[in-house]
Design brief:
globular; S-adenosyl-L-methionine; 8-stranded antiparallel beta sheet; transferase; cytoplasm; methyltransferase; alpha+beta; tRNA (uracil-O(2)-)-methyltransferase; 2 domains
């Protein structure tokens, strides 16, 4: 079975919004989200949660600047006040995650609430099917800013809109002064995220399984952490390299192999 072609469309409110597909709105104020881009949803709403779980647990697949994410906590009943209350939606689950940068000396880490919402209903099993995922950065101090690898938004939402035909749409609350036109960095980032969600949804529907299983001998996390420590400790050798070979390649390659051997010995 061939995966349907990804066919993104820049959002135009007059053409796509209906009573059931208007942008997200906050319960507490009149804040309206900005819809940026949409595409046909080629999988049922029941698979939306499975598709976005890949986005939640593996952000490194979408950005080379992210090392991995770690789950801090998960809840289906106790929700932080930082999580937005949205009209016509109810919170069903939230995951508090920590994003770890690939270059800690350059980029800061970031914690996020990843919140799943279902349409408001009577509370039966059908109504518990999530159709919206909202990512909310967590700032512990007013001085904190978003790292470069994070879009310039205060919140970002992935939505599955049940209509005829169903669509996937990304909506944002952009930071003040952030461009949202089709040539902007924010739009390009959302385009890549939407394509990833479209692919994950199709994979969930066709029971896609990886052809190659990674990290079977040595766990990924301790190896990555050790490599970052060794890279930071020995990066000065790049400036004092005495060989004619490329120091950027060989210094960090030796760090990688050394971390691999130490991690293997620890197992």
């Amino acid at each position: 079975m061939q995966r349907p072609r990804f066919a993104p469309v820049a959002h135009v409110a007059e053409q796509t919004d209906t009573a059931h597909s208007s942008p997200l709105a906050s319960v507490d104020d009149d804040t309206r989200w900005t819809s940026l881009i949409w595409c046909p949803a080629d999988f049922p709403a029941e698979l939306f949660e499975m598709a976005v779980s890949q986005l939640i647990h593996h952000p490194e697949y979408n950005s080379t600047l992210i090392l991995r994410s770690e789950t801090v906590s998960e809840s289906t009943s106790s929700f932080s006040s930082a999580i937005p209350a949205l009209r016509s939606l109810r919170t069903v689950r939230t995951i508090h995650r920590r994003l770890l940068p690939r270059r800690p000396g350059r980029d800061a880490g970031l914690e996020q609430h990843c919140t799943l919402y279902a349409p408001e209903g009577e509370g039966d099993a059908t109504d518990d099917i999530p159709t919206t995922l909202v990512l909310t950065p967590i700032f512990k101090t007013a001085a904190e800013t978003l790292p470069y690898y994070h879009p310039a938004v205060s919140q970002l939402a992935f939505r599955y809109l049940v209509q005829d035909p169903p669509i996937l749409r990304i909506e944002v609350l952009p930071l003040s002064g952030t461009p949202t036109d089709i040539n902007s960095r924010l739009y390009r980032t959302c385009l890549a995220l939407l394509e990833t969600l479209h692919r994950y949804g199709w994979g969930a529907m066709t029971n896609y399984k990886k052809r190659v299983l990674h990290d079977c001998i040595i766990p990924r996390e301790p190896y990555q952490d050790l490599y970052l420590i060794m890279r930071e400790r020995h990066k000065h050798l790049v400036n004092t390299w005495q060989e004619i070979t490329d120091p950027l390649k060989h210094v960090f390659e030796v760090c990688m192999l050394s971390a691999l051997r130490v991690a293997a010995h620890a197992e």
